[in-house]
């Protein structure tokens, strides 16, 4: 179950990457005072260099957010269903007392001792050796 949870967390993180890229490109353009247009690359001078093409590429990658949100929703639904099935069908770690006996725990069975065994020498005598 631990491997499944790690896999689900990895998929959720991968679904969040386009959303974070879109937010990052918008924030970088706003800080630099540039405009972003998904249809064309606009110049964006930052410290004497033009980063318009890079921001345009990141913005276009961020446009996959719509698909990522759909996949993220499906992954979360599957994850919740698997966790519910595991919780219902799994073995209880601390079994609760049954409701039939009024909620009290049954007394543990006493450990039965076997009768003391006779020494080996007396056993041989009893058999006639």
Q: What does this protein look like?
A:
- This protein is mainly alpha-helical.
- It has a domain at 8-89.
- The protein is built from four helices and two strands.
- It has helices spanning 2-32, 52-62, 65-89, 120-127; strands spanning 45-46, 49-50.
- A hairpin with a 2-residue loop joins β1 (45-46) and β2.
- It is rod-shaped and about 110 Å long.
Oligomeric description of these chains: single chain
Q: Nearest-angstrom radius of gyration?
A: 35 Å
Q: Mean pLDDT, rounded to whole units?
A: 80
> Largest beta sheet: what is the strand line-up?
1-2
Order of helices and strands: HEEHHH
Unreliable stretches, pLDDT < 50, 5 or more residues?
Answer: none
Strand fraction equals: under 5%
> What is the β-strand count?
2
- Gap between N and C termini: 62 Å
**Overall geometric form:** rod-shaped
Number of helices: 4
The biggest sheet, with number of strands, parallel, antiparallel or mixed sense and barrel status, is: 2 strands, antiparallel
Transmembrane segments: 68-89
Region (Disordered): 90-129
Keywords: Membrane, Transmembrane, Transmembrane helix
């Amino acid at each position: 179950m631990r491997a499944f949870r790690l896999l689900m967390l990895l998929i959720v993180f991968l679904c969040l990457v386009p959303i974070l890229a879109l937010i990052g490109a918008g924030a970088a353009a706003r800080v630099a005072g540039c405009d972003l247009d998904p249809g064309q690359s606009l110049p964006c001078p930052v410290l004497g260099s033009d980063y318009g093409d890079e921001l345009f590429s990141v913005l276009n990658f961020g446009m996959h957010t719509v698909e990522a949100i759909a996949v993220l929703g499906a992954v979360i639904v599957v994850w919740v269903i698997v966790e519910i099935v595991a919780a219902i069908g799994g073995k209880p770690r601390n079994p609760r007392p049954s409701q039939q006996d009024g909620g009290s725990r049954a007394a543990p069975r006493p450990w039965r001792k076997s009768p003391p065994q006779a020494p080996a020498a007396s056993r041989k005598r009893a058999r006639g050796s």
